[in-house]
Every structure is written in C-alpha cells, then in structure tokens.
Amino acid sequence: MHAASAAEHGGSVVEPVPEVEHKSRLLVHTVPSCCYRTIHSDAKPKDPFTLAQSDLKSLYDDIRKELFVSKEELKFLCDYYFDGKGKAIRPMIVVLMARALNIHSNRAGDLLPGQRAIAMISEMIHTASLVHDDVIDGSDKRRGKNTINNMWGERKAILVGDFILSAASMALARIGNITVVKVLSQVIEDLVRGEFMQLGSKENENERFKHYLEKTFKKTASLIANSCKAVSILVNSDPEVHEIAYQYGKNVGIAFQLVDDVLDFTSGASHLGKPTAADLKLGLATGPVLFACQQFPELHAMIMRRFSTKGDVDRAWQYVLQSDGVQQTNYLAQRYCQEAIRQVSMLRPSPERDALIRLTEMVLTRDK
Amino acid sequence: MFSRLSCRTLSSRGQRTLSLFSSSGSSNWTKVVSDAEKIVGYPTSFMSLRCLLSDELSNVAMHVRKLVGTQHPLLNTARGFVYDSKNNLQMRGLVVLLLSKAAGPSHAASDLLTQDMVSGIYPSQRNLAEITELIHTAFLVHRGIVNLKEWTVSDGPLKDMQFGNKMAVLSGDFLLANACTGLAQLDNTKVVEMISSAIGDIVQGLYYENSNNVEENSLTDGIDMAAWEEQAFLSHGALLAKSCQAAMELAKHNEKSQRMAYMYGKHLSLGHKLNYDLQPFVKSTGEPATFSFSAAPVVFHRKIVGEETWQRQLQQLLAAVKSEKGVSSAVDLCCYHGNKALEAIQAFPSSEARSALENIASAITKF
Q1: Which of B174, B193, B197 sits opposite A192 (nearest CB)?
Q2: Contact: B146, A135; criterion CB under 8 Å
Q3: Is position A286 within any domain?
Q4: Which residue of A has its CA nearest to B188?
Q5: Sorting pLDDT into bands at 50, 70 and 90, what band is A335?
Q6: Residue A54 belongs to a domain with what CATH number?
Q7: Min CA distance, A122 vs chain B (Å)?
Q8: A163 to B203: CB separation less than 8 angstroms, yes or no
Q9: Would you say residue A54 lies in a domain?
Q10: Is B158 part of the contact surface with chain A (CB cutoff 8 Å)?
Q11: Which single residue of A159, B86, B199, B344 could bond B264 by disulfide (Cβ 3.0 to 4.6 Å)?
C-alpha cells in the first residue's frame, strides 16, 4: 500500500500533492513550484542527535541554573532528573525545528535565545509532569533510578514538580512574547486534562479509540506540537508556517506515543528501565489492546473493569500478543509519521529539516 | 529586633490591648469582610465557581465521595471549601480586588478603558484575583498529600490513601494549570513572571513546613523570629504580596504604587498568619485546642525559654505557652504588621475601597 511502501523507502517518496500549489508562494524557491516535490534535499540526511548536539550540550546545565533555590535538598531533587541521561527527544525536536524554520525564514540557522529557552522549557514541563505522574501511578523507578516519591515521599515529590513548573513559567515569561506564553501554557492544561482522561473508561468501542487518540495528543503530542509552534512564532509571522511546525510536532508526537505503547508489550523489563505491561497494570487500554479487542471480544469486559480482576493483566497481554494489535498500532504510527514528513517537507530544504524527517524513522524503529 | 515590636505609633493602639482577648473578634472580622465584599460587587466566595464546576473537578468530587469514612486529608480540605470559616476562603482574592479599586483608574496611556471597569475594577484585575485564589487553593489541596511510607494500619486501608493522593495531585494540578492559562490571558509577561515566582516561593515555604514539628526535628534548637518570618513570608505572604503588586502592574500604576501594594499584601499576610496562629492561645472556649508546633507563639516561646525548658513543658504545652511571653510577642508582631499594612495603604487615595482595606488591616490585629 502507498503509505506502507513510503515508510519502507525511508521517506524518499515523490508524490503528487495538489494542495501544495497554493503554498508555493510560501516555499522559498529553490524547490520548483510544480506539482510535486522531492523530500530529500541534495545533501545526505544527517543524524538528528549529531545535528542537535551543540545546542543541547549545555541544555541540562542551563536548566539547572533556572532551578534556583537555596534549600539544598529541594535543589537536589529539582536537579534529580536533569542529569543529562534522559533521551532529550523533545528539546532535540525543538532545536531542529527552530533551525529549520530559521533557514526557511531567510535567516541563518542559529537559534534565537527565545528558541533555546523554549527547548529548555519544554523539557522542564515534561519532567515536572513525569514527577507528578510517578506519584499518581505509584511508580518506584524511572530511567533506572528510584523515583523521587519512592525515596523522599509523595509530599516532596509533588512540591518538586510544582517548583519545576514555576521555574518553567518564569523562563517562559522572560522570553517576553505573550503569544508564546499562551501557546505553552495550553500545554500545561492539556497535560492535566490528558491525565484526567485516563481516569475513566469509555463504554462504546468507537468512542474508546477516539478517546485514546485525544488522550495521547494531550499527554504527549501537545507539548511537542506547541513547542514547535512556539519556536515558529519567534521567527516567522506567517500562520501557515506556524501550522506546519505544529502539525509536524503533533503527528510525530502521536506516533512517538503509539510506539511507546507498543514497546510496553513487546520489550523486556531491563531494556526500558521500567517494568512492562505497565499500562495494563495501571488499568489503561492502549492502542494494541484496543485493536486486539476486535479479535478477542473478551477484552471488552476487562477494559471496562480496568484489568482489575486477578489474571486479567496476564490474559490481556496474551491476547494482545496473539492478535495483530501490535502490527496495527505500528502501522498507525507509520501513517502519523507520513503526515509529519508531508508537513515538514513544506519547509525550505535544510540539514535540520532532513534530520526531522529522519527522526520520524527513528521514532518508528526504536526499541527503547 | 524587639524594638519594632512596640505598638505605640498610633494612639488608638492603646485601646487594642484591652480588646485583645475579647470574643467579639470573629463577628468583627465577618462584618469587615462582608462590607468589603459589597464594595467589590459580589461575594468573592463564588469566584472560582467556573473552575470548580468544570467536568474534571466534578469528576474528582465524585471520586472524593469515595473517600468519606477514610482518613485522607483531602476530605478535610474539600469540607473546608463548603463550610466557610473565620479564615475566609477567598480573602486573598478580595484583597486584590479592593486594592485594584483603591488604586483607581489607570493614568498611563494604555488600552485600559474606564468603561470596562466594573465596580471600579478592570476585568484583568478581576481575573488576577481569581487566579490568586486558584493558586492558593491548589496548594491547600497539594498539602493534603500523605507520604505512603509513613502509613500505618491506624490510617485505614492503604488503597484509600493512594486514591486520595491521586485525587489530590490531579485536582491541585488542574487548578494550577488553569491558573497558568489564566495568567497567559492577562497579556502581560511581567505579571506572568511575578506570579510564577510566587508559586516557586510557596513551594520553598512549604517544603520544610513539617520539619518545624518536634517529631521530625527534635535535635534542632528551634528557629528564631527572623527565620520564622522568612519562612512564613514564602509560604503565606509571597502570593498575596506579588498578586497585589501585579494588580497594580495590570493597570500600569507607577512603581511606588506597586511597591506599596506589595507591602500591604506582604504585611497583611504575615499579620493574618500570626492572627491565625494565635487563635488557640487567645480564645477561651472550654474545649481542647489543637495547634501546630510551627505556630508563631510556639516558635518564639521555644527560642526565648531554651531547649531544656521546652522539652519539659511539652506535657503542659498549651498552658505553658500562654503563661510566657510568646503570645504577646506574636501579638506585638501582628500589630506591627497590621500597622505597616495601614501605612502602606495610605499611599493610595482615600476611598471606600481603601477604608475597607484599612478595616481589614485593623481587624487582623484584633483577637
């Protein structure tokens, strides 16, 4: 099928896309404004990590400087996850997108200070939410370390999350652009609403999937989408460019979470640094389970009772692995990546733009 | 340090020592607040209604009902929202509104139109008042989280505590998130920065809130008044102080107004905290009072009498505190802050709103 083969070719698809014509005024014009476009630029696609490295090198140091607090223990806990050992996917996407947008907007690629700040802020907001999620989920490990709530208690963990959030807000305000503040504040709200969405289960099967995708957007994709949008606002006033950045972030974010949900079923505990079937154990029905329902209707009742009966988790896991739930979820992730590629390809070619395309492949093929 | 505790600045203060232990304190407070509410146009208790009626919080309310019969602190916090008490739920918002009104219309060239004012307050200032309450409430809720490792069988089923925690985290986060988006809508990055820093202050103030308790910190010497004030400012003063300043910034009032508004908010909060801490020590109802070891009179008493005496008096604690000078020191400090707040508010033109603020500042020094 069309979309699947595109993924197999590693993204170098040439396809006719009628709607690009009215956008050709926007494209800066090394690309011929005929009705199709090549996605690869002439240079070889570069590795996203390498390209982003110089910008990200001091990212964690700078974040720690924002977490200015006199009390030693609080400082230690605020810094706890900013040890440079995280994947830093979000800041990486942000800096690459920022550079790609800067080039698209006829400037040098270098990051504006505000764009750099947004990379930091996105990671801070993400981390703050993780700290709270660990309390909500009762997790005792994250990234191979003991969680803050496990070691220092739930009360301090919550305060630490609140503090990181306040520091992120202050840094956000200091950029001085109120539109950027609005865009990223929305993320904070989306994160909480996404968490609330996980509290309930939907009866109707069709509603369930829609609910799952909406929750996935709020909990994962919103941050990436809005961070991309924010960096675009700082360099470009064209709302269509903002939309390109947003859509790339949104689609790659959803794909990222879908793959994460798959890995929860397919990878071993030691690989991820956290136990597997974690979602099932929390009572959550993710993509693979929802797809597997079609072949194993027994899963309906289990989903409604949030896998709370003894043996549910194991049985559900078995059903999923026997079904094509994993494959279907992966395929869906591919389609989101395709859309992400389609969007970002509307930007002027640059190594960073190609790295963003390459990144979608990496999202699909990662094993941890 | 003690020199500033003398309350001899205004002659009317002489009256104060006589009325210090009168029981008409609480009805006076209620009247002051209800008069003030009329000035700003509506009972501020309903301010966060829109947020409280949201789907998410209705959802939480449903879940919180399951906590009835358990010992999770969230239940008490939730109960407190329904049953008003002397420590008025929406006092901060009320003060922000009054101050906005007292400061009058904007004199700077700005987009602020007099016709947008309702009861003399700009919409952005009203929204700020609401945001202040959201943040305050969020932390009330977050403080109700329990450390699960300290759970004992007498706390009831562990899963109740886990569930209560989950609800507390989520609802607190929801309120904070709404505060953040609300702040963004004020269209002023300075204000966003100010209020965000207040959130950071609250965290720092609360972080060691429990470590003043004897159970956790019996090896230390106790803290002195300056340290107490610093702590109390972070946890109880920063939010109101910075919100008051922010209200002035929203109307583009000058730096002096901002500073005085900040001072009013700061000193009022500290005085209010002292008043609150003093309640068990100045009331003479027959029932046994509960109080925190981090309450001001206790903290000051401990430093004054020394550690040995403190340990000995633990058994007779309430009576012992009353019999020493901790209570009057705290009362004096409360008067000091009340006076400073009154001084600060003089910077604003005379008005009904300003009088209401003066009354509030005076009321906190009455016991």
Answers
A1: B174
A2: no
A3: yes
A4: A178
A5: very high
A6: 1.10.600.10
A7: 15
A8: yes
A9: yes
A10: no
A11: B344
Q: Does B181 touch chain A (CB under 8 A)?
A: yes
Shortest Cα distance, chain B CAs vs residue A282, angstroms: 13
CB atoms within 10 A of CB B157: 12
Q: Which residues of B99-111 are buried (b: 16+ CB within 10 A; e: fewer)?
A: bbbbbbebeeeee
| Nearest CB to A169 within list B139, B192, B206 | B192
**Which member of B148, B184, B190 has the closest CB to residue A182?**
B184
On whether residue A22 sits in a domain, the answer given is no
Averaged over B327-349, what is the pLDDT?
93
Contact at CB, B59 and A71, closer than 8 angstroms: no
Provide the pLDDT for residue B79: 64
The alpha-carbon gap from A297 to the nearest alpha carbon of chain B, in Å, equals: 29
Q: Is B325 at the interface with chain A, CB within 8 A?
A: no
Closest CA to B96 of B342, B255, B336, B268: B268
Tokens of B159: 């899963």
Distance CA A23, CA A240 (A): 9
Instruction: Give me the domain span that covers residue A234.
Output: 48-365
Total domains in the fold of chain A: 1
Q: Is A16 contained in some domain?
A: no
Kindly report the nearest CA distance between residue A131 and chain B, in angstroms: 11
- Taking the C-alpha atoms of residue B313 and residue B301, their distance in angstroms, rounded to an integer, is 11
B9 pLDDT tier (thresholds 50, 70, 90): very low
- Phi and psi torsions of A146, nearest 5°: -65, 140
Cβ contact, residue pair A156, B207, below 8 Å: yes
What residues of A are in contact with residue B169 (Cβ under 8 Å)? 132, 135-136, 158
CA nearest to A138 within chain B = B162
Phi, psi angles (nearest 5°) of residue B123: -55, -40
Residue B59 is nearest to which of A156, A170, A199, comparing CB atoms? A199
Burial A325-345 (b: 16+ CB within 10 A, else e): bbebbbbbbbbbbbbbbbbbb
- Residue B134's CB: how many other CB atoms inside 10 A? 24
Q: Which residues pair with A145 in a beta bridge?
A: A142
**Under an 8 Å CB criterion, which residues of A touch B?**
69-71, 73-74, 132, 135-136, 138, 153-156, 158-160, 162-163, 165-167, 169-170, 172-178, 181-182, 185-186, 188-189, 191-193, 195-196, 199-200
DSSP state letters, B16-53 = HHHHTT-TTHHHHHHHHHHHHHHHHTS-GGGTTHHHHT
A193: pLDDT strictly greater than 60: yes
Express each pLDDT in B245-260 by its tens digit: 999 999 999 999 999 9
Could you tell me the CATH superfamily of domain B27-365?
Answer: Farnesyl Diphosphate Synthase (1.10.600.10)
Residues 6+ positions from A271 with CB-CB distance below 8 Å: A367, A368
Separation between Cα atoms, residue B22 and residue B17, nearest integer Å: 10
Provide the residue type at A228 as one letter: C
> How confident is the model over A207-243, as pLDDT tens digits?
889 999 999 999 999 999 999 999 999 999 999 999 9
B219 vs B139, more confident? B139
Q: What is the mean pLDDT of chain B?
A: 79
CB A284 within 8 A of CB A312: no
CA distance A245 to chain B (A): 21
Closest CA to B359 of B54, B71, B57, B28: B28
Indicate the DSSP class of residue B9: S
